[in-house]
Design a protein that fits this description.
- The protein starts with a strand and ends in a 6-residue tail after the last strand.
- It has helices spanning 16-29, 41-46, 94-104, 115-126, 151-172, 187-195, 210-222, 263-275, 295-313; strands at residues 3-8, 33-37, 49-52, 80-84, 87-91, 108-113, 131-135, 174-180, 200-202, 228-233, 245-248, 258-260, 278-283, 331-332.
- By secondary structure, it is α/β, with parallel strands linked by helices.
- The chain has two domains: 3-150 and 293-337, 3-Layer(aba) Sandwich (Rossmann fold), CATH 3.40.50; 153-288, Phosphofructokinase domain (Rossmann fold, 3-Layer(aba) Sandwich), CATH 3.40.50.460.
- The protein is 35% helix and 20% strand.
- α1 runs parallel beside α9.
């Protein structure tokens, strides 16, 4: 093991840089050179990378949000968007990535990302590239993984927002609705509601009934609580209804192009009608992704990075994960790895 590369892919989360730092430091301690692909799979495809060093460009990054090597949200190398003769077509360019890896002599590629990122990583592994995946999603929903890095920071940001909404809601006797991220999983909504003293949490896994939510709020009013905190995940669905799509992006085929948003405003408007209390909606949005990671995420990310490099040194580029979704021999770092 002489030369490895890191790519960060998908939406940014706090902890990207801490994982990179953990890999780089462990690599240096074992005489391995470490490189970073610029903008995720796009960098792998274009063979665009830089050397990383804990004394120069990878120094002082533990507390920084984002990714020092960038990230791509629309680079599906197995179905890549290209223009030919003035027309947009999609092509499988994964073989170019494989040629680049072999030509440059990388012994292992670390893929920092979520579901789509790790699917591509798996498929590259099946084509002969040594891959170790490090699980990242803001929503904490990567298969075979107990917790993803970046998630704890998002929950902490949402909790702080609830603390602030609590005071204004109580002062003006209002229903304060907080819309948080959570496309298909409601971990952020649920845990931030518990930590922030929320009264209702609406999550994608359980279709909700606003009549019952209104009854809960009315019961609080009878008992002297003339305000309520409602946390709703962006992917929450009313009974008999559909997910609320704000728009559709042109990020290429093979990626989720639906942009969610708007459920919070719908919930606030309907609850105001049903309860008679004024309701206000706050969309937390990208505040959950940005900024400095929590202490928990710094430690978790460092563990993930260090362990990923250790597994590469041990040549353990495989996993015993047996779920149907990830039944393959490429390794996704998770708690059960150590």
């Amino acid at each position: 093991m002489k030369k490895v590369a890191i790519l960060a892919n998908g939406g940014d989360v706090s902890g990207f840089n801490a994982v990179i730092r953990g890999i780089v430091k462990t690599a240096e301690n074992n005489g391995v050179k470490c490189y970073g692909m610029i903008e995720g799979y796009k960098g792998l495809l274009e063979n665009n990378y830089i050397e990383l060093n804990s004394y120069t460009n990878a120094s002082g990054i533990l507390y920084k949000g984002g990714s020092i090597i960038g990230s791509s949200t629309n680079a599906n190398v197995f179905n890549y968007k290209v223009e030919e003769n003035g027309k947009v077509v999609y092509k499988d360019l994964s073989d170019i990535c494989i040629e680049n890896v072999k030509k440059d002599g990388f012994d292992c590629i670390f893929t920092l990302g979520g579901d789509g990122t790790q699917k591509s990583a798996r498929d590259l592994y099946l084509k002969g590239i040594n891959i170790i995946g490090v699980p990242k999603t803001i929503d904490n929903d990567v298969a075979c993984t107990d917790i993803t890095f970046g998630y704890n920071t998002a929950v902490s940001v949402a909790m702080e927002a609830l603390d602030r909404l609590h005071s204004t809601g109580e002062t003006h006797h209002r229903i304060m609705v907080l819309e948080v991220m959570g496309r298909y999983a409601g971990w952020i909504a649920l845990e931030s509601a518990i930590a922030g003293g929320g009264d209702v949490a609406l999550i994608p896994e359980i279709p909700f009934d606003l009549e019952k939510v209104a009854d809960k709020i009315k019961d609080r009013i009878v008992k002297g609580k003339r305000f309520s905190l409602v946390v709703v995940a962006e992917g929450a669905i009313p009974k008999g209804g559909d997910i609320i799509v704000k728009g559709t992006r042109d990020n290429g085929q093979g990626v989720d192009n639906t942009k969610l948003g708007g459920i919070g405003e719908i919930v606030a408007s309907k609850l105001q009608e049903l309860t008679g209390l004024e309701a206000r909606n706050t969309i937390l949005g990208y505040m959950q992704r940005g900024g400095t990671p929590t202490a928990y995420d710094r430690v978790l990310s460092t563990k993930y990075g260090s362990k990923a490099m250790e597994l590469a040194l041990e040549r353990k580029i495989w996993s015993t994960c047996s779920t149907k979704k990830w039944k393959t021999r490429f390794c996704t770092i998770r708690k059960s790895c150590w």
